[in-house]
Amino acid sequence: MDSQQPGTKKRVGGVNDTEEVLKNSTASETASSRLVNSEQGSTQKQSSPPMESHIKAKRRYISFFISNMNFGKLLSFFTSLGRAERSNSLSQLDFDINPITGFVPSEPLPRLSSEFKLWEEMLAEASDVLKLGDNNSEEALALKTKGDGWRANIRSIPVLDIQSLKFRPRHLQRVHVVLTWLVQYYVHSLPPSIEAKQVPASLAVPLVDVSRMLGIAPVITFSDTVIWNWELICPENPVTIDNMAVVHTFSGSEDEQHFYLVQAAIELHGVQILHIIEEYTQISDLDEPTISKIAGDLARLTMTVEEISDLIQSIRTGCDPQVFNWEMQPWYNGNDAKGEGDPGWIYDGVDPTSPELKHLSGPSGGQSPVMQALDIFLGIDHGLEKEYSTDGDDKPADHGFMDRMRFHMLGNHRAYLEHLKKLPRSVRDLAACIPALHKPYNDAIAALKNLRRLHMRIAVMYNVNVSRTTSVQSNHPDIEVAESRHEPGSEYVTKNNRDENREPVRGSGGGDVIRLLRAGVDATSRATLRDPLVSI
Ligand code: HEM
């Protein structure tokens, strides 16, 4: 197994401000600073002005508030507050979200033992004996016999029953990690063929079983590559990005470790966003201090989003686009990565009409629960039927993408997002009613839009430019910027021999990358409030 040696220098970050962000992004610090804040909050309450002046201040505020908003909206907002209070008895803890590490577990997943140990052993061996099926290098050809043997051994493993692990969720998650990595190794090391790829029953059956138990797609996901794919360098120290080492990589490269660690850092940094959301959903009384707190929290959220943008940029300091595109990305492909017309995968021993088999796309940042929670909290609507077309054609973007990606999350985490979506009081509606929140809300939207524009440049640099023989055909301003600045990565534009027929470049999530990411930028932009009193 290609686990990172404890103490290996990690290159997450790299630029000064990003290093600063990372220093501050340790989950434990985040939690302790939140603890201090909430303690301060309770201290402030104790030393609040005497009741009379407090009531006067409240009255002054309410008259200002009423004079600044439509009375009908005010009434309906207070009604919805009452509803929210009743419906929001659930907290993030109920959805397996840790107050310190968020969607990341608070300790590394345990390794499998007894009859399941064989799966662990096969995974540990895989990176030593397998290469991509279309790799014709001398090294790959020399390994061919060993690779054939590895796949034959996989086929000969009996179909194991995982019922004994039913009440051990962390073990089930480890089963998911191990089986999904084995499936990717198996499928992508097969020699190229026009036939459908057959996933042997020894992997397919227990994988579908465990996925049903966890409520997650039976394929490799963001959770398997990032959220669950780490161990502690010093087990006695807390879960912080500096104390995490990646366990599995396909390429054995530091680039791949860096890619996962940056995403793990974002999940940990995003815990600050989760705290803001949690506090917002617990509000029951909309008085002046509460409005100021929401304004302050939106400003903090804006800062956090900007820091996450820096983190995304830090991919460039440790992950080479060539390594990403040729040594990492091909292993991630799901059964839909090659588009319609490709026969895809067959899960032997599994009823082909099982609903779970509809979700076999590869891992994607769209499966990051933090990013989706942020979108839902801010009211970004990715699902509009008609998309603005900025490149002159009228093909719709894939508006179901973000919803589909939720099936690739742990069932508990998907349930949290669904819960968040159903809460009756949206921060966007509130900001539209209250002038004091208008700017903080719009600032947060601007920061998220900028994050998506910067992410799109990264995707162009790593995914599109490297995958094409000539430059990208698009009028989208973000792509023009990426190319005209000749950012690192654009030199790869002419080096590739894939996709010569100029089919749209497809991400591991299975979609047309440019159209999808552009639709995300546009959806974020559309959330901007134009007029505080009329835009809801
Ligand atoms: C080398 C770095 C990266 C590349 C090449 C890349 C590429 C892509 C591509 C091609 C997509 C389209 C959907 C798909 O097929 O997966 C996508 C979507 C997405 N990626 Fe990344 N990504 C990178 C890093 C990140 C990071 C660090 C994050 C942060 C968690 C992230 C978050 C997202 C999100 C949220 C989406 C869904 C679409 C959207 O929200 O606009 N990506 N990415």
From TrEMBL:
GO molecular function per UniProt: heme binding; indoleamine 2,3-dioxygenase activity; metal ion binding
Gene Ontology CC terms, in alphabetical order: cytoplasm
**A Pfam family the protein falls into:** IDO
What superkingdom does the record give? Eukaryota
Give me the ranges of the annotated region Disordered.
1-53, 473-509
Keywords, in A-Z order: Heme, Iron, Metal-binding
Coiled-coil region(s): none
BP term (GO), one: 'de novo' NAD+ biosynthetic process from L-tryptophan
UniProt biased composition (Basic and acidic residues): 477-489, 496-505
Feature: compositional bias, Polar residues:
23-50
Matches recorded under InterPro entries: Indolamine_dOase (IPR000898), Trp/Indoleamine_2_3_dOase-like (IPR037217)
Q: Which positions in this protein are listed as binding heme b?
A: H455
Q: Which family does the entry's similarity section mention? A: Belongs to the indoleamine 2,3-dioxygenase family.
Protein's UniProt name: Indoleamine 2,3-dioxygenase
